[in-house]
Amino acid sequence: MTTWTAPPAHRVSEPLTGDERAMLQGWLDWHRQTLLGKCTGLTAEQLRTTSVEPSTLTLLGLVRHMTEVERGWFRKGAGGRRDLPEVYCSPDNRDGDFDDVATADAEADLATFLAEIELADAAAADLPLDSEHQGRSGPISLRWVYLHMIEEYARHNGHADLLRERIDGATGD
Questions:
Q1: What CATH number is associated with residue 101?
Q2: pTM for the whole thing?
Q3: 8, 88, 152, 166: which could join 97 in a potential S-S bond, CB 3.0 to 4.6 Å?
């Protein structure tokens, strides 16, 4: 019996030229694949491993969190699908994405992440960057959502760098 490991990421170089939409989408895709790259080759147990005490942060928790974030900003916010439930969190368990990983199915969670990315891209595909939805403190443009998502991934990819290095010593982009 072979042990499941996270598959390779399909990261391409970040865009250096292009119109605004292509640049935003390209950088977002690059960061998405960077997070997956930090998971590549690790077992489910390794993905669920906390690595930097006293933090309970794990690579799988980051993947699950970004699944929630993709759904929240693109499908629920920009796409107007406010009826969609959260994937791992609930009103009684706001941090279920990060906290409930001890027995989580890493293979299923990575598949959910990839599916949510496709759905998020589809929700935004036909919307102009200037389209707006109502946020907690006022209107939010799709352009802002893209910029925020790039920032969110960049921050969490830094966490992923440290987690991966503590797990097996791997470093890199």
A1: 1.20.120.450
A2: 0.96
A3: 88
